[in-house]
Amino acid sequence: MGAGQSRSSNQLVVPQANAALDQLKYEVAQELGIAIPQDGYFGHMATRDTGAIGGHITRRLVQIAEQSLAGQFK
To answer: What 3-state class would DSSP assign to 13?
Structure first.
């Protein structure tokens, strides 16, 4: 598999969001001080590091959704 490819069978509901999610992944990794492999292959990374990135992404997405919903009900 090449850079940016995944074995996951999950499909995005909004395929255009893929670039934004990739950007978020790199931002979160940088904030955590975790280097993402240049070739995009995560198989050699520690599970702890990939889990930390995923967990922070999830928290950030929930926060964005909560802010969006709060703005709708004002």
So the answer is: coil
